[in-house]
């Protein structure tokens, strides 16, 4: 059974609420989902000044080395000026050892967000792409395919984009995720699990037995292609005169 980690940072709980729905969506596809949080980097006295509630006791803190135990990752975080929060950035930085050994190479990853007003919901996810590229992770966006009605519904406020599900917390954090946002989170989880579980399957299960084919050179088609190519080379015009300039050849 494929096993996925839903990895969050949340100051006020909006991201946590989406994470629970994403995990349910993952499990609806027969995969396992474990919800984690990254280490907090703010001192307790600052968190108190921010009126941040206690972290949920049932969500364990993830360590970078735990990542290798999972077949893929769905990261969720609130935006900070259209960017990822420092807590997520610090966690990404702590994966340097895994980068060096290719520990996350070609594992699937997806993202989701919470924003106060919606400003920065797309750039926040986009700012993770260097992390994705350097690890060789495979990015699975939400897209429009299964949530077209929800993403294009302009009569209801929502915090999602094709980059990932999102919620809008309100400028004072008083808005809770709506039913539609929670449903979108569930769908992102289930759609991610469908694709990511295939990538997680053992190599032997992935490769279908292939019927034996005659060698390409012996088929009539291959011989015709070869003849056409030879004729094209024979009839080709002489190469154009070139003028060398710096590093490049200008024809
Ligand atoms: C320093 C800082 C920067 C923020 N920048 C943005 C922003 O660019 N756009 C926005 O809509 N909300 C912004 N917010 C609001 C947070 O995104 C909001 O508190 C968060 O989505 C709530 O999610 P949480 O309950 O999971 O922590 C910012 C909050 C802080 C503290």
List keywords for this structure.
single chain, 251 residues, alpha/beta, Rossmann fold, 6-stranded parallel β-sheet, two-stranded antiparallel sheet, binds flavin mononucleotide
Secondary-structure map with pairings?
Blueprint: E1 3-8, H1 14-27, E2 32-37, H2 44-49, E3 72-78, H3 86-93, H4 96-101, E4 108-115, H5 121-126, H6 129-135, E5 138-139, H7 148-151, E6 166-168, H8 179-200, H9 203-206, H10 220-235, E7 243-245, E8 248-250
Parallel strand pairs: 1-2, 1-3, 3-4, 4-5, 4-6
Antiparallel strand pairs: 7-8
Helix pairs in contact: 1-8
InterPro entries: Flavodoxin/NO_synth, Flavoprotein-like_sf, Flavoprotein_WrbA-like, FMN_Rdtase-like_dom
Biased composition (Low complexity): 211-222
Organism: Ogataea philodendri
Shape: globular
Q: Radius of gyration, rounded?
A: 24 Å
Q: What's the rounded overall pLDDT mean?
A: 87
User: How many separate domains make up the residues?
Assistant: 2
Reading the helices and strands in chain order gives EHEHEHHEHHEHEHHHEE
Low-pLDDT parts are: 213-218, 238-251
**From the 3D coordinates, which CATH architecture of the largest domain would you assign?**
3-Layer(aba) Sandwich
- Multimer state: single chain
Distance between the termini: 57 Å
Kindly identify the CATH topology of the largest domain.
Answer: Rossmann fold
Q: What compounds sit in this structure?
A: flavin mononucleotide
Strand content: 15-25%
Class per helix and strand makeup: alpha/beta
The top-level CATH class of the largest domain is Alpha Beta
Q: What portion of residues is helical?
A: 25-40%
